[in-house]
Amino acid sequence: MTDKKIIVITGAGSGFGKLAAVELARAGHKVYASMRDLAGHSKDKVEDIRSIASSEGIELHPLQLDVREEPSCRSAADFVLAVDGRIDVVINNAAMMMAGLTESFRPEQLAQILDLNAISWLRVNRAFLPAMRRQNKGLLLYVGSGITQIPDPFTGPMRPARRRETFSPKSWALRTAATTSRP
Ligand SMILES: NC(=O)c1ccc[n+]([C@@H]2O[C@H](COP(=O)([O-])OP(=O)(O)OC[C@H]3O[C@@H](n4cnc5c(N)ncnc54)[C@H](OP(=O)(O)O)[C@@H]3O)[C@@H](O)[C@H]2O)c1
């Protein structure tokens, strides 16, 4: 394919992130399936991704990236830019689901959920956006959730936490477009 993109997906060891990573690599793109703790917690997922990549001969690579850790986001961006010299697409997918009566969550737990599901994209974007600005090109995507619209009593913390799609990316995109010079 001629329009091969360099793509990073967060939380790509399982679920939609993994599915998207595999399908985009099958479509001819170079995909970094990023995960936290490659050598420990995500070891089996890393082996699975490597096995799919080698059996299908596709450009699918595990990448260390914990979206809750700023240095990890920056290291991931540095690695991709050192290897590929550019980044075309970042897909903010990492999140967690939880269920239970809202009052059963401690405030610290709600803060962690909010951090991961609604705020962590900002760390990821801050790591990759400088390169996109230099390139005058790049695409930042966000996986939201329709659960914010469902009045389910057991997913209370999910509602504010999954409003990532309305949290500010739209205004961020407008500001970014307005402040990035075009050739
Ligand atoms: N499943 C649904 O019905 C549904 C519906 C609508 C939208 N969504 C959205 O789809 C996206 C993917 O969800 P999913 O259903 O595919 O669930 P999933 O399989 O649990 O995927 C979430 C991924 O995020 C990762 N993650 C968690 N904490 C992380 C961290 N600190 N740094 C990096 N990665 C981390 C998880 O990896 P670990 O193993 O390390 O925790 C996991 O691989 C989410 O944004 C979700 O809100 C899902």
UniProtKB/TrEMBL annotation:
What is any Pfam family matched here?
A: adh_short
**InterPro entries per the record?**
NAD(P)-bd_dom_sf, SDR_fam, SDR_oxidoreductase
- Highest taxon in the source lineage: Bacteria
Q: What is this protein called?
A: SDR family NAD(P)-dependent oxidoreductase
